[in-house]
Specification:
The structure is a homohexamer of 65-residue chains. Chain A has 65 residues and is α+β, with helices and mostly antiparallel strands. Chain A has one domain (3-64): 2-Layer Sandwich (Macrophage Migration Inhibitory Factor), CATH 3.30.429.10. Chain A is built from two helices and four strands, in the order E-H-E-E-E-H. Chain A has helices at residues 15-33, 59-64, and strands at 3-8, 41-46, 52-54, 57-58. In chain A, the strands form two sheets. Chain A has a two-stranded parallel ribbon with strand order 1-2. A two-stranded antiparallel sheet of chain A has the order 3-4. In chain A, strand 3 and strand 4 form a beta hairpin. Chains in contact: A-B, A-C, A-D, A-F, B-C, B-D, B-E, C-E, C-F, D-E, D-F, E-F. The A-F interface holds A 1-9, 12-13, 17, 20-21, 24-25, 28-29, 32-35, 39, 52, 54, 59 and F 1-9, 12-13, 17, 20-21, 24-25, 28-29, 32-35, 39, 52, 54, 59. Strand 1 of chain B pairs antiparallel with strand 1 of chain C.
């Protein structure tokens, strides 16, 4: 019954990459904790770099430096 | 003071359906737990089927099978 | 596939009340949006009144007024 | 290592306002709790008024009254 | 109507510090975005250092180095 | 800069298992998306089976059947 939420910036996050993340995190929880894949839920939220802050400024600004 | 967050895939989630969900969840918390509707907050997040995984694959792919 | 997260203060939140909330929210999503109960996940988080703020102060303090 | 998530409706939420929020929340955590800004993460989620409920109805409808 | 969720490790997080965080974040949102304090909700979640990872290991282990 | 939140029921979730999950999810994000482990944050929330619902009832009750 695990629930996993992943927040990621959108660049490079193709449909295929998302499938890979979902499959591998589900397998990890099955292998390490014997969790049933059929009740393992994973949601991916794509957070724009303007809306993600670290060190007191956005990732957008940080990358311009 | 309850706070409820609902993650749903967007299909069929009209403005009217959202109003209904917000009203009924708020009424449920008032009726069952005597919570004040004026401080009951509900947010709805629409998660694309590409970003929702179950059983190790996206809902998009699952629906194609 | 809906996922619902409810934050509530712990007072009066018995095991039975939690079962009722889980059943009724699941039924609401089935009735309004035709969501499959078997993939409807609900988690309840009990937030102490010291850790819940509204109007710039904790619910603990607010209730003392 | 704090992590702060802010849900806000999008009106008036310019790039500059977001930078200001990120900077000031990070400074607050540094000043009050001695948290290292370099590991302070802040994400901002913009929630449409149709998807935000209070008092059993959406903010969209509430503002029309 | 803002909703702010803060995840913090519990050390040094006294009742007074929590009141200060709630008051100052609420004031910040009022001053910067003209948000009504009476509908500004803040929840604080205390995450044990065993359950917080950065750089691929827990904060517990990281602090032992 | 990824942020991953995992909700799990507490049984079998030892300190060692948590370290393994944190390490492997961080490595997965580095390997698949080239994310920097030093800014990859993972939090684990342990949700009691009374507070986790699926199919309209708690996991506690479901396991008794």
């Amino acid at each position: 019954m695990p629930y996993v939420h992943m927040k990621l910036t959108p660049e490079g996050l193709t449909k295929e990459k998302k499938e890979t993340l979902m499959r591998k995190v589900t397998e990890l929880l099955r292998d390490e904790l014997d969790k049933n894949p059929e009740t393992t839920i994973i949601t991916i939220e794509e957070v724009p770099t303007d809306n993600w802050g670290i060190g007191g400024e956005s990732v957008t600004r940080r990358r311009q430096l």
